From TrEMBL:
Annotated ABC transporter domain residues: 1-232, 242-484
PROSITE patterns, alphabetized: ABC_TRANSPORTER_1 (PS00211), ABC_TRANSPORTER_2 (PS50893)
CDD domains (alphabetical): ABC_Carb_Monos_I (cd03216), ABC_Carb_Monos_II (cd03215)
NADP is among the record's keywords: no
Xref: InterPro entries: AAA+_ATPase, ABC_carbohydrate_import_ATPase, ABC_transporter-like_ATP-bd, ABC_transporter-like_CS, P-loop_NTPase
Keywords tagged on the record: ATP-binding, Cell membrane, Membrane, Nucleotide-binding, Repeat, Sugar transport, Translocase, Transport
GO terms of molecular function: ATP binding
SMART domains on file: AAA
Organism of origin: Georgenia alba
Superkingdom, taxonomy of origin: Bacteria
Protein name: Sugar ABC transporter ATP-binding protein
Keyword ATP-binding: yes
Pfam families: ABC_tran
Length: 484
């Protein structure tokens, strides 16, 4: 398959085959061609050249509906469910079972949807609204939706990006069960360790071309990294500097609304990176949002350099040097259709105003300064949506660093980012520590949180289970605390 856009060869003569009951991992940096290939297979993208066969017949779907009708489904990283409908309604949407008079037969609808959902180990009530479901449960709904339409090949795009360890293991169990029933998978992920757990074969793309294919998943991670980025990434996690003695951030007895987290106490020193680990739903995101003033805490206190700050006030948190890089950068960290310069301006109006009006030359200078300091591949006038995930994340971090913060809260800083860009983000974290900032990193990736942190605090069901020093960190110890 090949796909050319004006000035860009997104996919160049790529061969791929998938057998029945097989998981083929598709690896590559952002821009390697993975999404283009997945889009062609799923009927989203028209190829420029090449041929496909599916179940022995010529295959070239003109639309996602045609692909799904043929048995090929793409499960997007950003799930596309209707939040105000129930899980069951989302499973059968577009294929409503009707009764004799043409009305929707809700009893039949529930029965059909529940059968598919339960086969995937879905625990909540099928009548639960999607907006009330966890990310893991929503993912099960997406897969059930595809299976209900008899999909035999499922393309999973970063399926564990928002999942913790236990949710990931549960997903892998479902995949293995479906494999035994003859379903096949193309598995797109940046988490190389999990590829070795779930994949049968590995295909590596770089710059739109297939550069390697492995007949088993038993491949050294270092080799896969080199194949993906075209160079050796010797040390994915940089050596962190020793922190100073003075405490910058103090959190004491902090409790959130609806007890999403409760009685949390910890501190962060200058130049220290404290990780927050726990499974999805443990209260990690809610905790850092409260520290950053985005949510109101119902009890406890937050102090920066000894000064107490009000919770529930973002301006007060920012004034006292606390900034948050949110989990969902596209919806909460950036305005995608604005330029790099304009996104940076949004947190730095005082630097671009002149005589009460925005000075566009100052905006351009500010954007370029962030581009240079963060080593972003782009220009000040580049729209944020045109950047790779790694460069988007650098823009979010860079716009806050222009304020000269003392505390930086990073929620899932490398979610959906390829391995080469991850190394660059890790270097940014090291740079923050070297500058003497207090850094808090929330991550569902155990390897990441262990590789970056001086200490790790573990949450489970909103309760603080303990703080582990670097010398005592092991995945087993973290998970033992996270699953109590």
């Amino acid at each position: 398959m090949s796909k050319a856009y004006p000035g860009t060869q997104a996919l160049d003569d790529v061969d791929l085959d998938v057998g029945p009951g097989e998981v083929v991992a598709l690896l590559g940096e952002n821009g390697a061609g993975k999404s283009t290939l997945a889009g062609i297979l799923a009927g989203l993208t028209e190829p420029s050249a090449g041929e496909m066969t599916w179940l022995g017949e010529r295959y070239r779907p003109p639309s996602p509906g045609s692909a799904l009708e043929a048995g090929v489904a793409l499960i997007h990283q950003e799930m596309r469910l209707l939040p105000e409908l129930s899980a069951a309604e989302n499973v059968v949407i577009g294929r409503w079972p009707t009764g004799a008079h043409g009305f929707v037969d809700h009893r039949r609808l529930l029965a059909e949807a529940a059968e598919v959902l339960q086969s995937l180990g879905f625990q909540p009530d099928p009548e639960t609204l999607v907006r009330h479901l966890s990310v893991a449960a929503q993912q099960q709904v997406e897969i059930a939706k595809a299976l209900a339409q008899n999909a035999k090949l499922l393309i999973l795009d970063e399926p564990t990006a928002a999942l913790g360890q236990s949710e990931t293991e549960a997903l892998f169990s479902r995949i293995r069960e479906l494999k035994e029933r003859g379903h096949s998978f193309i598995y797109v992920s940046h988490r190389l360790a999990e590829i070795r757990t779930i994949a049968d074969r590995i295909v590596v793309l770089r710059d739109g071309r297939k550069v390697a294919e492995h007949e088993s998943s038993d491949v050294e991670v270092d080799r896969l990294v080199t194949e993906m980025v075209g160079r050796s990434v010797d040390r994915l996690f940089p050596r962190m500097p020793d922190p100073a003695e003075d405490v910058v951030l103090e959190v004491e007895g902090l409790t959130g609304a609806d007890d999403r987290f409760r009685d949390v106490t910890f501190s962060v020193r200058a130049g220290e990176v404290v990780g927050i680990a726990g499974i999805v739903g443990a209260g990690r995101t809610e905790l850092v949002r409260a520290i950053a003033g985005a949510d109101q805490a119902t009890a406890g206190s937050v102090r920066v350099s000894g000064r107490r700050i009000r919770t529930g006030s973002v301006p007060e948190a920012i004034t006292n040097g606390v900034v948050l890089v949110p989990e969902d950068r596209r919806h909460h960290g950036l305005v995608a259709d604005l330029t790099v310069g304009d996104n940076t301006m949004l947190t730095n109006f005082s630097k671009v105003m002149r005589h009460g009006r925005i000075d566009r030359s100052r905006v351009a200078q500010l954007g370029q300064r962030v581009i240079n300091s963060m080593k972003i591949k782009g220009r000040s006038e580049t729209r944020a949506e045109a950047l790779s995930g790694g460069n988007q994340q650098k823009v979010v971090i860079g716009k806050w660093l222009e304020l000269g913060p003392r505390v930086v809260l990073l929620d899932e800083p490398t979610r959906g980012i390829d391995v080469g860009a991850r190394a660059a983000i890790y270097d940014v974290v090291r740079g923050l520590a070297e500058q003497g900032l207090a850094v808090v990193v929330v991550s569902s990736d155990l390897e990441e949180v262990m590789g970056l942190s001086h200490r790790i605090m573990v949450l489970a069901q909103g309760a603080q289970q303990g703080i582990i020093e670097r010398s005592e960190m092991t995945p087993e110890r973290i998970m033992a605390l996270a699953t109590v």
